[in-house]
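Quick one:
INPUT:
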């Protein structure tokens, strides 16, 4: 586990080994979530456009609901869907 300090502007520096492990690059978007216990925060890199490009070609058909499209997107992001 690594520690970092919150600045007066609400900013943190992500340690280099974590940036490397998450393949973070300048300008990447991060997803932040506080877990139910209220003591744990999850940080993950939001998927890049190139990683999810084309995931809707199998489901974006007339009659497809938003929920079905969202489920297909989430499966693709999780790596469960192969284009």
């Amino acid at each position: 586990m690594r520690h970092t300090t919150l600045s007066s502007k609400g900013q943190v520096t992500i340690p280099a080994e974590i940036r490397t492990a998450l393949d973070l690059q300048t300008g990447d978007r991060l997803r932040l979530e506080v877990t139910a216990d209220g003591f744990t925060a999850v940080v993950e890199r939001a998927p890049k456009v190139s990683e999810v490009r084309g995931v809707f070609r199998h489901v974006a058909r007339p009659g497809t609901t938003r929920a079905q499209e969202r489920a297909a997107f989430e499966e693709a992001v999780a790596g469960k869907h192969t284009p």
